[in-house]
Amino acid sequence: MCNVVCRLILNAKTTKEFKEKIEDEYRVNMILDNLPLVVPLRRPDQESSLVYLHGFLVGLKGQYAGNKDEKHFIHNHLTFVVKYHRDPVTEFSRIVGFEVKPFSVKHEYEGEWDENTRLTTCDPHAKKIISGTEPPQEVEDKKEIIFTYDVEFQESDVKWASRWDSYLLMADDQIHWFSIINSLMIVLFLSGMVAMIMLRTLYRDISKYNQLETQEEAQEETGWKLVHGDVFRPPSSSDLLCVYVGTGVQFFGMVLVTMMFAALGFLSPANRGGLMTAMLLLWALMGLCGGYSSARLYKLFKGTEWKKITLKTAFMFPSIVFAIFFVLNALIWGQRSSGAVPFGTMFALVFLWFGISVPLVFLGGQIGFKKPEIEDPVKTSKIPRQIPEQAWYMNSVFAILIGGILPFGAVFIELFFILTSIWLHQFYYIFGFLFIVFLILVVTCAEITIVLCYFQLCSEDYMWWWRSYLTSGSSALYLFLYATFYFFTKLEITKPVSGVLYFGYMLLLSYGFFVVTGTIGFYACFWFTRLIYSSVKVD
């Protein structure tokens, strides 16, 4: 009860620092037996459910009744509640909860201050405890602050194994189901469209094309069959496409495996930083798949210098990400924040990249290049066809921007929760939902790209390679725009450095999203074009 920690006389410097921390809503975080300290809050709409906030605020701003001036008050008394569970067999107890109620109290005492001074505001002998009705402790120059705390031990029914459950409790899982049903509607609609194209149009087209007997009918071919001599012509900047597809495969593999582990419960938040470590390690290991897929595609484009393409795959995406990350980290470091990544860790990251990822990309590239070349279902003609004038709605920029809306729509509600957990101190631990949403995203990206690719080929435009990548990849643009919207509506960030950090990290997230969704779209289209052109007879 009412244990005195220390007595502090403020000077101008400490007063200014405390006021800044209170202004910026800094929180104090503590850990007891690997459990983070939380402030339990009742939700106004639901009396029964508690929301846990990470850490407690350094202090508050407020006014005295009848006074307009805003004052800064510091939380100098903490009432800790440590919950424990007693094992009936062994009689030992284990900690299962760590909560705090912070108070601001202007402590008083009689006489001069020394080691044995008893406070009059808070005295365990006189059974006087802090209730929150006492006058608060102001932060002003030359004032004294006495820091105190109580610890109360409460027996709890929560078993040690399930002590994280209350932290990870999802208060409103209905909205996630709603979001999933909403996304499934999009998927059903698109699947219906893809099925219609496949069955009606293709079946009719293919049977019609294969029955063209007379020469005159053969000359009146229309639609996608006309471009059969050009559809597998390598695109411009084919090297870059190979690099991006390889990177996308690497990223996709990392996300997929991480999510599977997380959904099965291997990456518990009790294991601090487990998620990040797992992702970085998987990124390095997935270099094998990245190198393999970029080399296979490069060989299809009749490329010969596989080492060059493998080098680009190993360095292009990571170096851009690392450069942005390094600049952001330098900014945090310049602010003397404890959130900066130390140089040792930076060195470990570089080692992971050069020592594990790069050699694996090379190995994958070599295996991929040694494999026999993928056969094209139709021969490519010597002279490229002229592409006819396209209608305004088939314009590449318009089609690409339209293609990104649906994949973004499928993930956008879940994205809100992820952003909230990253930027607003909440736990995000609904990987089961996230995994379903991820699968929906994959299907949506694939289907929208196939539909738009088919319309493009029907209007005799055979430049589908890059377009298929960008169509679903453009959802990353919407993701970044949404992050911008979220910044201005939900966050109150005033410091320029914090703003730069937010946009820097969101840029990295969007870039990763672009690579993954683009690759999904590209492979869907790649499969689709091979499928339809392999089923028609060509003279």
Write structural notes for this entry.
The chain is of the alpha+beta class and 539 residues long. It has three domains: 2-167, no CATH class; 172-202 and 399-420 and 432-538, no CATH class; 235-375, no CATH class. Helices cover 52% and strands 12% of the residues. It has 14 helices and twelve strands. The protein has helices at 12-23, 174-210, 215-219, 238-263, 274-285, 287-300, 306-334, 343-370, 396-403, 405-423, 431-458, 465-473, 475-490, 496-534; strands at residues 3-9, 27-28, 31-32, 35-36, 38-42, 50-54, 56-57, 59-62, 71-74, 77-86, 93-103, 144-155. The strands form five sheets. A four-stranded mixed sheet has the order 1-12-10-11, with no helix packed on it. It has a two-stranded antiparallel ribbon with strand order 2-7. Strands 3-4 form a two-stranded antiparallel sheet. A hairpin with a 2-residue loop joins strand 3 and strand 4. The longest helix has 39 residues, at 496-534. One of its GO terms (cellular component) is Golgi membrane. Belongs to the nonaspanin (TM9SF) (TC 9.A.2) family. InterPro entries: EMP70.
Round the mean pLDDT to the nearest integer and report it: 87
User: What is the strand arrangement across the widest sheet?
Assistant: 1-12-10-11
Low-confidence stretches: none
The fraction of residues assigned to DSSP E strands is 5-15%
Helix content: 40-55%
* Oligomer classification: single chain
- Give the topology string: H per helix, E per strand: EHEEEEEEEEEEEHHHHHHHHHHHHH
Shape descriptor: elongated
Count every helix, treating DSSP H or I runs of 4 or more residues as helices. 14
**Total count of domains:** 3
Number of DSSP-assigned strands: 12
Question: Gap between N and C termini, in Å?
Answer: 93 Å
Largest sheet: 4 strands, mixed
Computed over alpha carbons, the radius of gyration is 31 Å
Helix-strand category: alpha+beta
GO biological process, one term: protein localization to membrane
Pfam family, one: EMP70
Family: Belongs to the nonaspanin (TM9SF) (TC 9.A.2) family.
Subcellular location: Endosome membrane; Golgi apparatus membrane
